[in-house]
Design a protein that fits this description.
This protein is of the alpha/beta class. It has helices at residues 8-15, 35-45, 61-72, 91-98, 111-123, 154-169; strands at 17-21, 24-31, 81-85, 103-108, 129-132, 144-148, 173-178, 189-198, 208-216. The protein has a single domain (3-216), classed as 3-Layer(aba) Sandwich (Rossmann fold). The protein is built from 6 helices and 9 strands, in the order αββααβαβαββαβββ. It has a 7-stranded mixed beta sheet, with helices on both faces. Strands 1-2 form a two-stranded antiparallel ribbon. Strand 1 (17-21) and strand 2 form a beta hairpin. Helix 3 (61-72) packs parallel to helix 4 (91-98). It starts with 7 loop residues before the first helix and ends with a strand.
Amino acid sequence: MSVPALDRRGFILQHTRLLPVPHAPEIALHVADEATELWQKTEDELATIGLPPPFWAFAWAGGQALARHLLDDPAIVRGRRVLDFASGSGLVAIAAARCGARLVQACDIDAFAAEAIALNAAANNVTVAVRLEDLVGRDEGWDVVCAGDVCYERAMAESVVAWLARLSARGAVVLIGDPGRSYLPKDRLEALASYAVPVSRSLEDADIKHSTVWRLKG
């Protein structure tokens, strides 16, 4: 099976349901009912062609916190150019679009995520530009950059945070949503808000993850 031959949209629609996000019910996403079942299916059927796990099929705690923060304070993004980095399902990008951002881009390196973002944006009647590429190191003049749950691996966290810090230093508002991942650089962050976010115990170590929205210092 080759990647172009995959019916990504069909796979997503077959294995997910459109449901409200627990901590941001104004938004609905195509999410998996059974996390472990879908995770195993992608490992069994799709890993042979080098595809990543289905991060796009869940509303992760950091992303839910970021989405809630934007929805509660839409002035953060209203009229501004927004990038949702490592977007996954597109949750934060959709929240930014609902809040009146002038331009919203959602980037991810997984083609399934790109398809899921497009599906979810359409389901919420918002416009999101999907970027299927790695934007680390690039600066396209975004006013606000959001990143949820990006500090779970050391190498990724160091690379991403160094890039985000450069964007912050030139004036971008950089917001990170995180439930306490191992490689979160707290010494470089300012806490803005905290939330008790409902999550799936099959993915996390608790039913509720206390997640914080941080602003990265330049």
